[in-house]
Amino acid sequence: MDAVLLQISSRIRSHLFGIDTREVEFARRGFAVREPTAAARLEGVARTFVAGYRLALAQPEAGRLALELDRIPAERRGFAYEGAGMALELLDRVTPWRRDRLQSFLAGPGEPHTYMVLIGAGWAWARLRRRVEPLLRSLDPVVGWLALDGYGFHEGFFHTERTVARHEQPHGLRGAALRVFDCGLGRSLWFVCCADPDAVAACVAGFPVERRADLWSGIGLACSYAGGVDDEAVERLVRRAGAQRGAMAQGAAFAAEARLRAVIPAEHTRRAVERIAGSSVELAAKLCHSELARVEAVPRRAGDETGFEGWRRGIRETLERGFPAGVGAGS
């Protein structure tokens, strides 16, 4: 049945579902550019996402898509896989004759990039505005929750006034789903605030106290994975996180694991993880892997929130034990 899709030209699919590169330009989004170099770096990240999205729209067949994505320089390749995840999930949800493109990609050449592909799938959820629970049940009961992180990032990036300025959350989410949404929203703050540590911290301080740890988790992931600043700025960001350094470190560890699993290491990730998590990228990634194995050892139904939250908590608590006394003990 996928031949039906192939009969629709790439041009028509792009017309129906395409994202204009101008949509991710910071000036168009209204982001305050304080440091042009950082802004240019992060805009480049966003454009790479769009490139991956377009590649998957044009060629959703897993093997051929991976060949195209792997042409992108390794340091930015993960963002292209993230964009591809959005396109594959979108096609699965709007074309009734086939609904396994995302799963086939994750089971095949997209497997090393599982985390980024799942985050990209969450962008599709945000665009489609459908109930999340049935979508979540179609994914892995632990790592599948990363799609909600992607949902949160999308809302912060494209609906900044509503979600960042007014602190609104989706009405259809509750419990752990809102926490993971906030992790993605925190990631978006790294872009919205153009990687300015003081602006990021001031933005987080405006949110209710109970949401701040998850926001800092996302900030730690974005700072470590996407980069954009020097060592001094990362160290300033750690100081501004204060008691939430543990949450931030957990996000940085996720960045380490995502890059090492996909074999796309980056020097800025290594340096950021060392400063945020107090760990090498190798040890941080190993911790993520071992904690994931621990929670996966417990049988879970799809949609069970305890696995993903247990994964994050185990990473955070382990890293916090390595901090100097009194540092990063936020909940």
In short:
With 331 residues, this protein is mostly helical. Helix content is 70%, strand content 0%. The protein has 19 helices and no strands.
What features would you describe in this structure?
- The chain has helices at 2-7, 10-17, 26-29, 36-58, 62-69, 74-94, 101-107, 114-128, 132-137, 146-158, 160-165, 176-192, 197-205, 209-226, 231-241, 245-261, 267-277, 281-296, 306-320.
- It has one domain (2-320).
- The chain has 331 residues and is mainly alpha-helical.
- The termini are far apart.
- The protein contains 19 helices and no strands.
- The mean pLDDT is 92.
What is the CA–CA distance across the termini? Answer: 49 Å
Number of E-state strands: 0
Radius of gyration: 18 Å
Instruction: Give the overall pLDDT as a whole number.
Output: 92
What structural category characterises the helix and strand content?
Answer: mainly alpha
Spell out the helices and strands N to C.
HHHHHHHHHHHHHHHHHHH
Which geometry do the CA atoms define? globular
Low-pLDDT stretches:
none
Number of domain units: 1
Q: Percent helix among the residues?
A: 55-70%
Number of helices: 19
Major sheet: size, sense and barrel closure?
A: none
The percent range for strand residues is under 5%
